[in-house]
Amino acid sequence: MEIRGATFVTSNTDVRQCPAPDRHEYAFIGRSNVGKSSLINMLTNNGKLAKTSSTPGKTRLINHFLVNNEWYLVDLPGYGYVKSSRESRKQFNALIRDYILHRENMVCLFVLVDSRHAPRAIDLEFMAWLGENGIPFAIVFTKADKLTARACRDSMAAYENVMLEQWESMPKTFLTSAESRQGREELLGYLDELNRTVDKFW
Ligand code: GTP
Ligand code: MG
Prior knowledge:
This protein is an alpha/beta fold. The protein has one domain: Rossmann fold, CATH 3.40.50.300. It is 34% helix and 21% strand. The chain has five helices and seven strands, in the order ββαββαβαβαβα. It has a seven-stranded mixed beta sheet, with helices on both faces. The mean pLDDT is 92. The site of guanosine-5'-triphosphate has 22 residues, from helix 1.
């Protein structure tokens, strides 16, 4: 799929203030610092679209970006940001939950996990919660450039092993790097596929 343009639309702390749900959207979520904003910039060929930072907790709002004047990419705040206070963490979690459960035009949620890390409880529990609530999601492994291809494969296999203890089958998975742009075509291809499916209903 060709990206002809991407523009920032709004930042919100309240799902009710997000753009009207009259176009479909894809949201990116995952632990703080996993590379959500960087991936959005890589996909849209715009290094400055979503704000990135080496300090975790950069994205604290729900950010909507309009792509090709047709659909939205959504940059969500990271979960599990340890430095925030318990109160603000609770608020973030409520915000994320509210968005995921009530955003009717969200077609697929992309859960990002760092390729370098062994499966972590926080991510597995989050995905279990998505399953319980019937939220369609895919897994995106990030920062592949930091590992050898073999270590990436091992990392993905480790995830699969753990997940298949609880799930009947794996969700769709992607291996990406915002640095080397690995996985861009695959991910955009999948979005294109989903776009075609939802277009029929829209
Ligand atoms: P929050 O908004 O804080 O939740 O973080 P985020 O998930 O949006 O992460 P962000 O895109 O800001 O990236 C965090 C850090 O990881 C930055 O220093 C990025 O440059 C770096 N980073 C992100 N993706 C990649 C990647 O694919 N490869 C490498 N080497 N670094 C990356
Ligand atoms: Mg971010």
